[in-house]
Design brief:
Oligomer: single chain
Shape: globular
Number of strands: 2
Number of helices: 27
Helix content: over 70%
Distance between the termini: 67 Å
Strand order of the largest sheet: 1-2
Number of domains: 3
Largest sheet: 2 strands, antiparallel
Strand content: under 5%
Length: 579
């Protein structure tokens, strides 16, 4: 009896020690360390009181304009633009973080331009962009004059003439389009000289200390990790460089894809040196990044787009996931159930993030996760270009097109970029639906862990207790959900405008997102460096993984489009009209 008690005590001690020794929990602490530092700095050093005064003035203007006219007037939009200019990331801390998390920049023909640009080079680039800006500025000015005249005509009729009101709305809408074009063109004339090499060296040292502390707590060698990390970081830098090349950017082939490719080339030609492998901490990197991703998933934005978006994201996604898994088992007869479910989750939920969580829940092999991520990256690049082109060719409404892309393209960044091809409304709808879908990362991981414990492994002859569900559940998902809840509550308490200024344009864009992007880049570089084609090839026999992905994505495309059309245009057209 005494011995049993000791066992219980030891087990309990082990459970508590997991909190600072296990990768999932350390990823949570690391992610929240970044979040806490960013929140403390921005909420203490950004000009919050000044923001509040400017927001109040702009809100008063908007209230007056809303009461005066049945549409958003020019003054209303100008006040809204004034609020949009309030960014906590413009504070001293924001500039500091932005400087020390820089990635290699854009370039066309000379790769060195990604790292160093002189004053003379920048001057040439800015001067070259100036004519386009002047033309866009002139077009915006002309559109503003036309909008002002149309609004004045509507005002003269006391806004009681529907035809004049509609004409004013159309002219103001045209002005907003030209105004955005001018703003984008202006940014291309404001390049500044830079030398990213010292910045990248400093960032590398910071990452070594940040992740190295976790490595040490997990009982591994800090020195071995630090030595190998330099190579992983260099591959990530090269991946960023190639991803920011003009043609790569145009076709959506970003740092993630290049990281995997470069790493695989090294691993399968020269061979990844053994001393580099201790730094290929794929899951530690990406789990930490996923905790930070939670800060970008806000519940009020989910509610803002309404029930149609929730149906597209939360009804279609599980149907596609389950059907794809059943198709893989019953029709394709895939020998590996873990590979089957990881590909199904990757393709249906939200790409690599869901793949990592699902792989952890069902304990898939590293090669299976790599294969799934590889398929996802390739098809994301294809769909990012093909879908906007197809939507334009079919003359599909932009809101429907945005919803379709948001529910089917795997990567959050690719969704926003693809939506931008169709305009601001499409980008907003696409990004919001993808954000709603991201919430399912945790739900999917839990359901897969439960199904694997109670069904799959039970059928395989292994007795698995209910407690195994908790042991198998990827704990870092709790960090993702906690960050989402905390930021959602903060955003709600601050209000839309202050929340945007302090959180979205401060803590997130000026902190957590910058580091999340680097964490993801490191993980993809590490995936490539630790992948052997021979080990991977056996999972690709018969091309079943590719067939599964193509068939599942095809079903996803059809069902998402149908659901988006029904929800946005047949069931809830009044919500669509307000977007």
């Amino acid at each position: 009896m005494e011995q049993d008690a000791n066992v219980v005590v030891d087990h309990g001690h082990s459970q508590w020690s997991d909190l600072w020794k296990k990768e999932d929990f350390l990823a949570i602490w690391l992610g929240f360390l970044v979040i806490v530092v960013c929140m403390f700095a921005y909420f203490n050093f950004a000009p919050k009181e000044d923001f509040a005064k400017k927001i109040e003035v702009a809100n008063q203007i908007q209230a007056v304009e809303a009461a005066k006219a049945p549409f958003k007037t020019i003054a209303w939009f100008k006040a809204n633009d004034d609020k949009g200019k309030l960014k906590a990331s413009g504070s001293g801390f924001g500039k500091f973080v932005s400087h020390w998390t820089k990635s290699p920049g854009s370039w066309k023909s000379n790769p060195l331009d990604a790292f160093i640009q002189t004053e003379q080079q920048v001057k040439v680039v800015n001067e070259k962009a100036m004519p386009k800006f002047e033309a866009a500025k002139a077009a915006a000015g002309t559109a503003l004059v036309a909008a002002t005249e149309a609004e004045a005509a509507a005002a003269q009729a006391s806004f009681q003439n529907p035809a004049l009101n509609d004409a004013a709305k159309d002219k103001i809408s045209d002005w907003r389009v030209e105004h955005r074009k001018a703003s984008d063109a202006k940014k291309k004339t404001e390049h500044k000289p830079y030398n990213h090499i010292p910045t990248l060296i400093g960032l590398c040292l910071f990452m070594v200390l940040l992740f190295g502390a976790g490595i040490k707590m997990m009982g591994m060698s800090f020195t071995a990790f630090a030595q190998g990390f330099v190579v992983v970081f260099l591959v990530a830098c090269l991946a960023y460089m190639l991803g920011n090349q003009a043609i790569s950017k145009q076709y959506g082939f970003g740092a993630e894809a290049w990281g995997v490719i470069l790493g695989m080339i090294i691993a399968n030609t020269l061979g990844t040196p053994k001393w580099v492998l201790p730094a290929c901490q794929v899951e530690f990197f990406i789990k930490s990044g996923l905790v930070l991703l939670g800060a970008e998933v806000l519940f009020n934005k989910i509610v803002a787009i309404g029930i149609p978006g929730i149906f597209v994201a939360w009804v279609v996604t599980p149907i596609v996931l389950i059907c794809t898994y059943i198709f893989g088992q019953k029709v394709l007869k895939m020998p590996s159930k873990t590979l089957n479910i990881v590909i199904s989750a990757d393709m249906s939920v939200c790409g690599t993030s869901a793949a990592i969580a699902t792989a952890a829940a069902c304990r898939a092999k590293k090669e299976e996760l790599t294969l799934s991520i590889g398929l996802s990256l390739v098809f994301t690049a294809i769909m990012m270009i093909a879908m906007p082109a197809a939507i334009k060719a079919m003359g599909m409404p932009v809101i429907l097109g945005g919803a379709w892309m948001g529910g089917t393209i795997d990567s959050t960044g690719a969704v926003a970029a693809a939506g931008a091809f169709l305009g601001e409304k499409a980008m907003y709808v696409a990004a919001t639906i993808k954000m709603i879908q991201n919430v399912l990362i945790g739900v999917t991981a839990f359901c897969v862990a439960m199904y694997w414990c109670l069904k799959v492994e039970h059928e395989a002859g292994r007795k698995v207790g209910v407690s195994e569900i908790w042991n198998r559940f990827p704990k870092f998902v709790l960090g993702f959900l906690a960050a989402s809840v905390i930021f959602s509550l903060l955003d709600s308490s601050l209000g839309k405008d202050m929340g945007n200024a302090m959180l979205e344009q401060g803590v997130v864009r000026g902190g957590t997102r910058l580091l999340r992007a680097w964490f993801f880049a490191l993980s993809f570089a590490a995936i490539g460096l630790s992948t052997n084609f021979r080990a991977l090839s056996k999972y690709f026999k018969g091309g079943k993984p590719l067939i599964l992905y193509v068939c599942g994505q095809t079903f996803n495309l059809v069902l998402t489009l149908a659901m988006a059309y029904v929800m946005f245009y047949l069931v809830f057209p009044e919500i669509t009209a307000k977007i």
